Amino acid sequence: MSGVIVTITLNAALHVDYATGEVDAGGIRPVSKPGYRAGGRGVTAARVLRAFGHDVVAAGLAGGASGELIREDLARSGVPTAFTLIRGESRRIFRFAGPEDGDPGEQVMRFGETAPYITTEELGRFAADYRRLLVGAAAVVLCGSLPDGLPPDTYGSLVTYAAEAGVPVILDVGGEELKHAIGHGPDLVVVETSSPEPGLGTDLIRLGAGAAAVTAGHAVHAVTAAGEWTAHVAATDADVRLHPSRGALVAGLVPGQLLGWSWPDRLRHALALAAGGARVGAKVPGGPEGRSYVDLVTYERLLDVVSVQPVLFRRRQCCTAPGLHRPWAAPPLAPAPPRLRSA
Description:
CATH topology: UDP-N-acetylmuramoyl-L-alanine:D-glutamate ligase
Mean pLDDT: 85
CATH architecture: 3-Layer(aba) Sandwich
Structural class: alpha/beta
Order of helices and strands: EEEHEHEEEHEHEHEHEEEHHEEHE
Helix content: 25-40%
Number of domains: 1
CATH class: Alpha Beta
Shape: globular
Largest sheet: 10 strands, mixed
Distance between the termini: 16 Å
Number of helices: 9
Number of strands: 16
Strand order of the largest sheet: 5-4-1-8-9-10-11-12-13-16
CATH superfamily: Ribokinase
């Protein structure tokens, strides 16, 4: 695989984490010094890809002091950045974690700021930067929501630019953004639903996707020209995250898309990372809170417990994709990849 993998996060966030103590006699709850971490699914995907030694650059939109801290945090993780500067302040997400022995209902509280407004001039500069990044790129990963001011067809235009440059596109969006982008022909679409929707992947391919991966909880259903597969990992496993990381899942699907792995191997790799192999925002042993890393021991073990089953046949049916209105009117498998090691 030659060339750099470009991840695009148009609505990047700065996660600001605090640890809180017990309320004192004056009614004040003390907090620790803040910890800062760059966030957004595209940012997470860039971290995980870099951890496995892939050449990657994280790009998108960032501004203000929050934008600078986002770039600094990624630099500490060894991830090069190429964010387009905006005048507004990148949004912040505040997390307050209570004492471990405190009230379970007050263990974690989260607050989020609204996204910055993006001007037409800023969008134009980003479009120029994006097209420059496509030159020689191995793939582009488009992730997440749109900030204020950007039209819903923004991702559709970015998919088209990549297709014109001959660069494969992995698209991870929902709602109106997905509705406007799907017809531009992304190579792989990743969507999340609250419950399994068996016909969704097939419908996404009808609308223009080259392949689709539909995730619901600890399961992923893949629909491709070569067939369909369902992957699952038991949520009761001690190493499995309560909420799998969607950014890590997307990162896990990228190498197989570029190197032609079989879909069962792609799904095992991606779900092992999402379910617990990629410790996103976790505490690195001996290091500060908030650093993301790949736990190779957990990753290797989860590879062996991810179950992948082919879908031999089923009755086609219509269902509703996130943000889309319905109903609406394969090559041989590559050999299994070797066990991966982080850089």
